[in-house]
Amino acid sequence: MSVGNRVFLKRDLPSKELVEAFKEIPAANIEDCMNRIFGLNPEIKLMSTPKQNMVGVALTVKTRAGDNLMIHQALEMAGEGDIIIVSNEGDRSRALIGEVMAQYAQCTRKVAGLVFDGAIRDIDEISKMPLSIYASGYTPSGPFKEGPGEVNVPIAIGGVIVMPGDILVGDSDGVIVIPKADAETVLAEAKIVCKKDAEKVQAAIHGTANKNWVNEKLVKKECEFIDKTY
């Protein structure tokens, strides 16, 4: 049986123009348009020093804990604009990649980013790289290369389901997942949220923020205000 040990060679992809349109929008503003439930767990952190936001399409990998054979396969399939995103059974004991694979991903395959629900290694070198690399930590312990695993299948990572071809956006705050079927709607809403958020920042800076909503919500929640010490 090939289930659990298979590679799908094709994905349904959004248009390049649609993907590119997310590059100037912070991850937080986009996430606010999706009811704040499509951000990966903050345990998965930025480990490198990119000069711009990570934006691309998901090339998914489901691998056995501590094994990177299918990550190597995904690298052979990946190209510019792809983000390899890896489910690793939540394992933290072994690094899934190191500097060699990271440089290969960046320089030879020219991917847009790498996202792991596990550890990496060679952090001194990777931390200086301009390729966006997200992981849950780092360790000197290396991976196995035995499989099994799957490529271009639905995965769960950081509390979020990711489908092959979904749009991923990452910045210093973390990574969010935009379901490809909803991407056009999310983009339109994110542009509005981004504009409103900029206005709120200016109001906070200049002392013109309207905070009446705080009292109104507490009253609605039947909060008791007590005019004496505890």
UniProtKB/TrEMBL annotation:
It catalyses: oxaloacetate + H(+) = pyruvate + CO2; 4-hydroxy-4-methyl-2-oxoglutarate = 2 pyruvate. Its cofactor is a divalent metal cation. InterPro entries: RraA/RraA-like, RraA/RraA-like_sf. Its EC number is 4.1.1.112, 4.1.3.17. It comes from the Bacteria. It is an enzyme of class 4 (lyase). Catalyzes the aldol cleavage of 4-hydroxy-4-methyl-2-oxoglutarate (HMG) into 2 molecules of pyruvate. Also contains a secondary oxaloacetate (OAA) decarboxylase activity due to the common pyruvate enolate transition state formed following C-C bond cleavage in the retro-aldol and decarboxylation reactions. Homotrimer. Belongs to the class II aldolase/RraA-like family. This is Putative 4-hydroxy-4-methyl-2-oxoglutarate aldolase. It comes from Fusibacter ferrireducens.
